[in-house]
Amino acid sequence: MTFFLKKYLIFCFVLLIPIICDAQTVNQGMFSVEPGTQLSTIEKFKNDVSGDFVNDGELFLYNHFENDGYFGFSPNLSSGIVRFRGQQGYQNIVGNLPIDLNNVEFNNVSDKYAFRVSNDIAVFGKVDFQKGIVKSDPLLGSLVFEDGATCFNADDDSYVEGLVEKKGNDSFVFPIGQNSKYRLAGITAPETINDAYTQKYVLDNPNAIYPFSNKEASIEVINNKEYWVFERVAGKADVILTLSWDETTTPSELTSGSDESLHIVRWDANKKLWVDQGGVVDKGDKTVTSPVEVTGYGVFTIARVVDSSSDNIIVNNAISPNGDGKNDYLKFQGLIGEDNTVEIYNRWGTKVYETKAYDTNGNVFSGYSESSMTIDKSAKLPVGTYFYVLTYKKSGKTTKKVGYLYINL
Which positions make up the signal peptide (predicted)? Predict the structure, then answer.
């Protein structure tokens, strides 16, 4: 027998089997909350081993939540939402079986770490971070965003402290942080829905585990306050990575220099070495983005590299290959010699051009793809934004200059 709720109810009794257990609400049978229905429970809510709970309405949970049965929603409906609204302290979200949520709101003002998660939560719709930090147990808890799932309103007052996983082929900003510091990390859209990645922010010095003395020559100063752990856990696609900075945690010696010297670096576990992943800075958003897909996974942070802004290389980064003799190709004024490499990538991280000894024998980028995957190499690339990566030698050190490139008609 299935119970269907069609009106607003506040309940603090046992569903289906009327037994009182330490002032908690227990579901031990089949229970369905229909669309347009509001249901609230004041006491701890437990979905027992025999419980089958389908929420397509609006479920308000004002206390702890334990799931040992099936807890989900109808796959053809998007109306279901669970609103965690703790009023008397933090809320434990625990249990032995995963929790499938369509949409969820975290809104608890009574405790800093308002939501303490020791279970796997999978979200298929939207997550609204209103108030309260979601702290997940490193061994037992995680928040998984399924394909198409999104989140919004994350800030210093509400985010995830712990592991966040994203599945699917959507670009995504991970709502992560630590110690009341929201420190987002973003990725571009992977290739398939089978790709999956995890992110975690750590407010600690990585030097003790990943020594700064082991680094590429172009890296000058590495962030000694924080790092991100970014892993690919399913699929084969690589992505472009974005990290954020904040003046209250990120050392000023990193952000006070030129934009071109602020890069993302990665600890290469095989080489036991910090390697440069490049960087394009957005000062308005306080982010730095790898200009191309990352070359590996693991530990990432922000670093200052050899400053190329003093090399007197001027980039004419707007090209219009229309044959009028003006801005017909990408120019690097001041680039001398043949010991250099130029790479061009589209906004999805696909390489469309590469050459060595740029502009020494007519080898310039004029808006055409020379990728091995391009069928018609006589066709112009679409109008839009691209990334350039110029790698050259400076005083015996390898230097990277990266930035945006605009193709217009």
Answer: 1-23
